[in-house]
Amino acid sequence: MNEEAIRDDDPCYVISIAARMVGMHQQTLRYYERVGLIEPSRSRGNIRLYSPSDISRLRQIQRLISDLGVNLAGVEVIMRMNQHLQEAEKEIAQLRAEVERCRANHWQAQLPAARATQA
Fold first, then answer.
1. Is residue 118 part of a domain?
2. Of 64, 56, 62, which Cα lies nearest the Cα of 40?
3. Which residue of 49, 53, 92, 117 has the lowest C-beta tally within 10 Å?
């Protein structure tokens, strides 16, 4: 199959399609951009282009507002905290991998010394 899958960060949807996908008005998407909740890419002609990641973020914003009754200030705080949490989880995973590499290197370095002691 030669079809290229759309990556999560590929800007590919114009505002009318993005608005339809999330069930919002285009003006709402523009407002969310103005207040800093979303940052769509721009084409050379300065047209907003939304990625699948942007669509997912818009749906999350919509759930917070519609389902949980969170106001826009609260949405901003929650989204920022969520981003920090994801970054921290990524860093923890990297640190765990580094610890495992260090442990493996330590044990490999100890093997020749242990073998020499046994001989």
1. no
2. 56
3. 117
In a domain, 69, yes or no: yes
Total number of residues shown for the chain? 119
- Please tell me the total count of domains within the chain: 1
- Reported pTM: 0.74
What is the sign, positive or negative, of the torsion defined by CA atoms of 35, 64, 83, 23? negative
Q: Which residues of 94-107 are buried (b: 16+ CB within 10 A; e: fewer)?
A: eeeeeeeeeeeeee
**Residue 27, domain CATH:** 1.10.1660.10
Q: What is the pLDDT of residues 24-82, one digit of tens each?
A: 999 999 999 999 999 999 999 999 999 999 999 999 999 999 999 999 999 999 999 99
Can you tell me whether residue 14 is helix, strand or coil? strand
| Residue 3 counted as domain residue | no
User: Could you list the residue range(s) of the whole structural domain that residue 93 is in?
Assistant: 13-110
Rounded Cα distance between 119 and 116, Å, is 5
